[in-house]
Amino acid sequence: MKKLKAVVNTLDKKSHINREIYGHFSEHLGRCIYNGIYVGENSDIPNTNGVRNDIIEAFKEIKMPVLRWPGGCFADEYHWKDGIGEKSERPKMVNTHWGGVTEDNSFGTHEFFNMCEELGCEPYLAGNVGSGTVEELADWIEYITFDGVSPMADLRRKNGREKPWKLKYLGIGNENWGCGGNMRPEYYADLYRRYSTYCRNFGGNELYKVAGGPNVDDYNWTTKLMEGINDFHAKAISLHYYTIPSGDFFNKGSATDFTDEVYYQTIKNAMHIGTLIEKHNNIMKQHSDNMKLIVDEWGCWFDVQEGTNPGFLFQQNTMRDAIVAAVSLNIFNEHSDVVAMANLAQAVNVLQALLLTEGEKLVKTPTYHVFNMYKTHQDAELLYSYCENEEAGGKIPAVTKSASIDKDGHVTLTFSNASLEEDFEIECELVGNSFTKAEAQVLTYGDVHAYNDFEDGERIVPAEHKAEITEKGVKFTLPKLSVVSVRLF
Ligand code: AHR
């Protein structure tokens, strides 16, 4: 087995890893909300105010820090006043983006905010700029966060919620260059200023406003947007990047049936997020010292599963997805000086989902397990780390890694090995603090096409792994096609 030397300096703290980097996204799309997260109070499936208990438990287990809602493209045709009050009286609408299905608005503001409170996670709203009004968005903020006497706060009370909720993260529209209005950046920048002006900070609530940033490598959008707004107007801009194996949006490739070459190309495409972050950040830095990037949609996007509604974006989730998740999260950690938040698309039953459901059954995907193995990076400090590397598949570096130290001085190391052929032994020198105990987990499987399904939901699960404290640091194996996390005490 090839040995790779690594170094982690526990005294060299690089940047704070915001817990929001481990964030998620839930859209009114397919079976993400309805028949996914939300089954309604009258369902036979055990639920709390209509939200599945097994989903609440699973989200809590990974310490979900933030959840984006209600879209996505859906956000720019969502009218929040349709989703409050007596459910039977809520108007219905057509979800024109996603399958043309009827949206009955039974999951609305109260349902979302109460669920976030139950989960202990920050809500992240995407406001409607594409087809909504300034007044509508301003009213929503007043409805959610105002404690005094006002038309919107009184309406909230009438609907059963006395105290305001807390709202920090507010996106002003979504994909304003596309489904959110097909705007030009100059026009959007002006609209951003107008809409965000009327989203007020009520009482102790302070909004963290996010401007709609670029798609993938649209550097012109970033430049023009940054010329049009400054850090007085926005704390961050968003970036959307999906990993598409073929790079062709109209013929993406299968989620489960792919060659080794396509596998390596997928991982290469996932790694491209690092370059995108750096290039967009270089542009942002020319205009502002403080503005951050929020990668509020990322993940694998494959062809929809045959036999399912093409508008529902349902896809399976294999070991390939687990490697993409591990690689991406390591990259976000390594760029945590600029990446303030990231949101995997999407939480349940859509794209690179954490969880899949069918009736009362629920499956945790390999991607879910990666989030669980990485959760101790949340709110820790990124450490300097280095690791020797080897090429895999003639295309990519096999190994990615990141290291962090938490407030109690415990260190988390996360490594991924994308090679389908080679196991490595990692000999990691630890400079600075010394440790007496190592606990490790490994997620791996003999077949990159393997996934968890309703017949066997435990096919791919993390297992305990051997990690040995040595004179200089810690030693462990990094099997081919694996993700390893090590905790040092
Ligand atoms: O996540 C699915 C869709 O992808 C979102 O609605 C949109 O913002 C993006 O194009």
From TrEMBL:
<dbReference type="InterPro" id="IPR055235">
    <property type="entry name" value="ASD1_cat"/>
</dbReference>
<dbReference type="Pfam" id="PF06964">
    <property type="entry name" value="Alpha-L-AF_C"/>
</dbReference>
<comment type="similarity">
    <text>Belongs to the glycosyl hydrolase 51 family.</text>
</comment>
<dbReference type="GO" id="GO:0046373">
    <property type="term" value="P:L-arabinose metabolic process"/>
</dbReference>
<dbReference type="GO" id="GO:0046556">
    <property type="term" value="F:alpha-L-arabinofuranosidase activity"/>
</dbReference>
<dbReference type="InterPro" id="IPR017853">
    <property type="entry name" value="GH"/>
</dbReference>
<feature type="domain" description="Alpha-L-arabinofuranosidase C-terminal">
    <location>
        <begin position="296"/>
        <end position="482"/>
    </location>
</feature>
<keyword id="KW-0119">Carbohydrate metabolism</keyword>
<comment type="pathway">
    <text>Glycan metabolism.</text>
</comment>
<dbReference type="InterPro" id="IPR013780">
    <property type="entry name" value="Glyco_hydro_b"/>
</dbReference>
<dbReference type="Pfam" id="PF22848">
    <property type="entry name" value="ASD1_dom"/>
</dbReference>
<comment type="subunit">
    <text>Homohexamer; trimer of dimers.</text>
</comment>
<dbReference type="GO" id="GO:0000272">
    <property type="term" value="P:polysaccharide catabolic process"/>
</dbReference>
<keyword id="KW-0378">Hydrolase</keyword>
<dbReference type="InterPro" id="IPR010720">
    <property type="entry name" value="Alpha-L-AF_C"/>
</dbReference>
<keyword id="KW-0326">Glycosidase</keyword>
<protein>
    <recommendedName>
        <fullName>non-reducing end alpha-L-arabinofuranosidase</fullName>
        <ecNumber>3.2.1.55</ecNumber>
    </recommendedName>
</protein>
